[in-house]
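re: that chain from earlier
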Amino acid sequence: MKHIETKQAPQAVGPYSQGVFVKDTLYVSGQIPFVPETMTLVSNDISDQTRQSLNNILAIVKAAGLQKEDIVRCGVFMTDLGEFSKMNAIYAEFFGAHKPARAAVEVRRLPKDVLIEIDAIAVKP
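^ sequence. v structure.
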């Protein structure tokens, strides 16, 4: 097992790793839409928050020596599924033709009162 840490993604706000590599599988902890350099919320807009969370995931994936196309699953946690179409548009733009498996659920509240948190699993080819 190898712990993945990068300054290109927000530092963990609790007792966990940004990512953990076990054999050929990378487990990326849920990423909230914080800008890594400032550890502040990117904006109050769901589109901006979705993009930032996905970029944070990608930074961790790259730090592990993998790429976007190695992501096989994402979990999306939102405080308002009424914003699903906006999130989905950014998600589709981010992944393009690559389509990982995904679950999207509404939750009552997220850390730091953000609108979205996304986790991921990537597999080394």
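The radius of gyration is 13 Å.
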